[in-house]
Every structure is written in structure tokens, then in C-alpha cells.
Amino acid sequence: MIFKVYYHLNVHEVPVRENTLSLYVEAETEKEVRDQLKDRDLMIEYVQKLEGEHLAYEQASPDFHVEQV
């Protein structure tokens, strides 16, 4: 499964929507995604499972590439 992870680089600042970044990760569960990214020191805001038409929409974006973690 592919998950989209919304995050912020600085864990010590209040999250601001305009500064939210995202990346795509392949994993079996949301817990596995969080475990894989634990050592990156990111403030993970939300992990969203992508499937069906939503996944197809994201894959059509030129910014889509799955992170190898």
C-alpha cells in the first residue's frame, strides 16, 4: 500500500498549514510508516492511505515518487 505522509521539518514549531510538506511511502500499515520515519526527526501531522482513484490522481502528479525508507 502507498501512504501519503504530511509533515513539518521542525518539531519545535507550531504547525502552519502553508508549510506542510508531504512524501509517499510504501508500507503495509500506518504504524509501519511511522516506525520507518521515526529516525528522521519529522513532525508527522497525518498519514493517509491512498487507494483507488485517489492513488491514481496522486500518481498523475509530476511530484509523485515513493520514498525508499
Report on the architecture of this protein.
This protein has 69 residues and is of the alpha+beta class. The protein has helices at residues 30-37, 52-59; strands at 2-8, 21-26, 43-50, 66-67. It has a four-stranded mixed sheet with strand order 3-1-2-4. The longest helix has 8 residues, at 30-37.
Task: Summarize this structure as a short list of keywords or feature phrases.
33% strand; globular; 2 helices; 4-stranded mixed β-sheet; alpha+beta; 69 residues; 4 strands
The overall pLDDT average reads 93
**Gyration radius, in Å:** 12 Å
Main beta sheet: 4 strands, mixed
| N-C termini distance | 14 Å
Structural class assignment: alpha+beta
Instruction: Identify low-pLDDT runs.
Output: none
Adjacency order of strands in the biggest sheet: 3-1-2-4
* Tally of strands: 4
Write the element-wise H/E pattern from the N-terminal end onward. Answer: EEHEHE
Strand residues, percent: 25-35%
Secondary structure tally, helices = 2
Fraction in helix: 10-25%
Overall spatial form: globular
